[in-house]
Write the structure tokens for this entry.
Amino acid sequence: MKKILFSLILLFLALGCKQSINNPNKDKKKLPRIAIAGLAIESSTFSPALTHEEAFHVRVGDDVFSYYPFLSKDSLNRKRADWIPTLRGHALPGGTVTREAYESLVTQSLEMLKKNAPYDGLFFDIHGAMSVVGLDDPEGDFIIRVREVIGKKTIISTSMDLHGNVSRRLAENTDLITCYRMAPHEDALESKKRAVDNLLDRIESGKGKPAFKAWIPIPILLPGEKTSTRIEPGKSLYAKVEPASNKKGIIDAAIWIGYAWADEPRNHAVVMVTGDDKENVTSTAEDLANSFWEARSDFEFVAPTAPLDKSLDMAIASKKHPFIISDMGDNPTAGGAGDVTWTITEILARPEFKFKTGPSLIYASIPGPEFVTKAIEVGIGGRIEAYAGAAIDNRFAPPVKLSGTIEAIEYGDKYAEIEVVVKVGSTFVIVTKKRKPYHKEIDFTRLGLNPRKTDIVVVKIGYLVPELYNIRADWIMAQTPGGVDQDLERLGYKRIMRPMFPLDKNMEDPDLKAELIPSSEDI
Ligand SMILES: [Zn+2]
């Protein structure tokens, strides 16, 4: 009997040994399988522009890693999981996304997800303010369709822009969620990394989905130009977020300003807190929501604002140069069509800029593909007279006639493709083949322009991004018309939740009690 037992043990050991020779990873912990997907755009329903699929500059497979330095080949996080990147697209803000583009991008993402399922986690990297023709709450629709493919068990960690919207169904279907804590978004990558870190931590620790998700819709709708975190009250409000997220039993806390240029019930501010401690999750969310509500009347434009004619008067009279004027209504980085000609038409009509001896002014920018073609024919140094702009948004002014000398032609920009500088009187007008935001000093210097040595720089932008902010000697935000008009009362909302601050004067205090959203497994 003993002998038989001994032989059996030997056999066992031999088999075990053989197995470990064949499978050297047997004792290694199995890495979690985590997929990556997401579409990012903010799109204005108040702009006649439409956004097509190519605007998303889609990356698929391993190319998706290039968005995330914290997932680079040698990074710690890359080694913590078996990553399965699918499709990610990121578009400049613009008009409503066509239904065809949305369906195509979502279908491609779902097919890629299907191929490698199941997953322990999904990093869902979205902006949160996409508008799609004939479809409400696209991100909510997208995540439901993702769930249909990957199932309810997978932990989804969603990363968003604080100008995105968190609908109830997005809150229901995601497990972890966070958004930027700075505007301008200097912490974009840090926020995305936090979404990934939280996901990995929850999977590795075995804690899984958070026990509680508190969601509080707040009836406030403000433009980004009033809610920069560089100045009060945005600064103090957002300063509360990180300490809140460090409290016991809390995974993450986040405040969304929401997106003001779409007319859907989901467009408003939101607070969400996730974690395992019911009391802390609930009270922290309510504290943040109440802090926002209490500060609501203190949100003002981040810089002085004035009508355009007054802004130009001030810039011309000023001794501080460059005097930057934000042409806010057609800001392409907020969702404007980018080709509104109203502002440049007004500038060129001013007598001060008619002659070369006038104050130097850079206007950035106006798309005009036909103008660009003609400029190439004429060449640098040649005279041109041709029209640009207002191909998409001609509600405020028709295409503008530009008669002047071609100063520069540059090829190869990712967005503009071809850029032309034409000097009209004392104004340097940048005309592009396709629309492009001018946010960096190099955007100007590569065209031979020096914004630091120019009297007046007019840019289609809202609040200044850090580079332009640092260049400015003075700055005013001009209230110009366009798809992202900052005067929200002029937009004429029909479908947002009412009452809404500040549109409805003297509204009563809302109920800001946290709602605990059921786990994604229970819906
Ligand atoms: Zn944003």
Summary: The longest strand covers residues 400-413. The pocket of zinc ion is lined by residues 161, 163, 185 (CB under 6 Å).
